Amino acid sequence: MLAFLDLTATAPHTADERQRALQSKPPAITVDGVNKCFRLPHQQFVTLKQRALHPFQGRTYDELHALRDVTFEIADGEFFGIVGRNGSGKSTLLKCLASIYDIDSGRVSVAGRVSPFIELGVGFNPELTARDNVILNAIMLGLSRREARSRFDEIIAFAELDEFVDLKLKNYSSGMAVRLGFAVAVQVDADVLLVDEVLAVGDAAFQQKCFNEFDRMKAEGRTIVFVTHDMSSVERFCDRAMLIEKGRIRNLGQPEEISRQYSELNFGASAHSLGGAAAPAEAMPVRILGAWCEDEQGERIITQQQGERCRACMEVEFTETVNDPHFAVTFRNAARHTILVTRSEIHGPGGRYEAGDRRIVCFSFVNLLASSRYELTPSVSVPDLAAAAEVEDMASLIVAAPHWSGGVADLPHELEVRRP
Fold it and tell me: Of the spans 48-57, 176-185, 351-360, 407-416, which averages the highest pLDDT?
């Protein structure tokens, strides 16, 4: 089923009320004129002998300016997103907030206890068991020994590692280590939680559990700083977001605006999967403004149970008159295999649109996809121009299923066993 919706939706009153409430609160994090530069030596020595034989070598270096005059504030209780391309300075900024890195100049102020969940394995000793690592990390994050022991069962239960609690961490998979680290981070009742992209390592079921924790902590008024490449998560959770590029703040504003700018910066227009020629975004008579998934009630989602009805949507704006455009949404799994493609032309002519028209186009279907994370690529082709615009991986959907079949979809079927 294909639906064309006029763009008439307005922000919920609850969101407006939350924004007003946040504006009246004091800052939990203040970053003022922060600069951070790394020196990269042209030659490195690993032994004293090498240094002694070449005393004057290795003194030249390049400078990498990771952060340049970064200034912003995060209100107490705000869910704040930081996005940017690889190497833009996101993780460096988060480590400065966590006091893992010293800053070269400027000021960083964080009010309250901080719980960082930044890099996989940081703070864990691979030679110790999960039991010992949980207690040590909880104490390092501010809990007393008594508090750490009292919350141990909850941490292990959240991580679903009851059977591996006495196994050394060096024998854990990356997914198991992520579950353990996140479980500790959310159980220490910190005032400020710093979360990097490491959640992408977990499986679909664990990511759903993490998102449920985000909802809980957001409702409790915790301050959360979330670094991610997933624009669906930014739009779903964040009160505000910041786009950083080459160490500088490019923009700070509403999540939908930042998500759109990030997609334009990082992806632009690429080759169209339906065979149309690639075209620069500014040369196309239609622009893709956003993409997301909805449930049957019209609520935007980033996770969904298998078997429920799903709507894959895109928002488009026409800058010129267009006749019968073709809309499409492509779903790809983590292995970059194309799993599902929905196209509008099989439903008939696309209609006529004038310059300035904006539409939300939705493809509705029963979600029978297997348990996995899927990236959505929206695209629009204009047959008269033999050209197409698309934005790679503009949104994502995590599907949770009651069992794992090994296939890419779980179609309804019946079982019959009979004699030949």
Answer: 351-360
φ, ψ (nearest 5 deg) of residue 264: -65, -40
Instruction: Classify residue 300 as exposed, middle or buried by CB count within 10 Å of its CB (0-12, 13-18, 19+).
Output: middle
β pairing state of 326-332 and 372-382: antiparallel
**pTM, rounded to two decimals:** 0.71
Nearest-angstrom CA–CA distance, 242 and 257: 10
Coil, strand or helix at 199: helix
Q: Which residue has the higher pLDDT, 308 or 174?
A: 308
The one-character DSSP state at 413 is -
Distance CA 145, CA 137 (A): 11
- CB-based contacts of 175: which residues, under 8 Å, 6+ apart? 201, 202, 203, 206
Residue 141 to residue 116: CA distance in whole angstroms: 9
CB 195 within 8 A of CB 95: no
CA distance 238 to 224: 9
| pLDDT attached to residue 272 | 38
Q: Which of 166, 91, 102, 96 is nearest to 134 (CA)?
A: 166
281-323 tens-digit pLDDT: 556 789 898 899 999 988 888 888 899 999 999 999 999 999 9
